[in-house]
């Protein structure tokens, strides 16, 4: 794809009596450039939609379903060796549970 350099909108080519110089209108060149970009963007969007539709058609219904999120609450096993440590607030209800193999610090 060619990229225009707007200050030099001039085409020169050899002719029968010397060089032919064809000049262009800056506003018209800019409008054509904008239109070309819009056409290219639309064509790319259409191609992406076709690819997605093709892949979705090939997938089974089970693959298309969104899995349910399982709750991620982590609790220590009941038989684990744990101990309660005081958080240093002076309130006995505010404690933390840690492994019995860890130090309190």
Structure report:
The chain is elongated and about 105 Å long. The longest helix is centred in the middle third of the chain and has 33 residues, at 26-58. It has a two-stranded antiparallel sheet with strand order 1-2. It has two helices and four strands, in the order E-E-H-H-E-E. The protein has two domains: 6-64; 75-105, no CATH class. 35% of the residues lie in helices and 21% in strands. With 105 residues, the chain is α+β, with helices and mostly antiparallel strands. It starts with 9 loop residues before the first strand and ends in a 6-residue tail after the last strand.
- Give the distance, in angstroms, between the N- and C-terminal Cα atoms: 67 Å
Chain oligomer state: single chain
Count of distinct structural domains? 2
Strand content: 15-25%
Q: What's the overall average pLDDT, rounded?
A: 78
So what's the overall shape?
Answer: elongated
Structural class: alpha+beta
- Number of E-state strands: 4
Low-pLDDT runs? none
Give the helix tally.
2
Helix content: 25-40%
Strand count, sense and closure of the main sheet? Answer: 2 strands, antiparallel
Strand/helix succession: EEHHEE
Radius of gyration: 36 Å
Lateral strand order in the biggest sheet: 1-2
Keywords:
single chain, 105 residues, alpha+beta, 2 domains, 21% strand
Q: Concise description?
A:
It is built from two helices and four strands.
Note the topology:
Layout (H helix, E strand, L loop, with lengths): L9 E6 L2 E6 L2 H33 L2 H4 L17 E5 L8 E5 L6
Antiparallel strand pairs: 1-2, 3-4
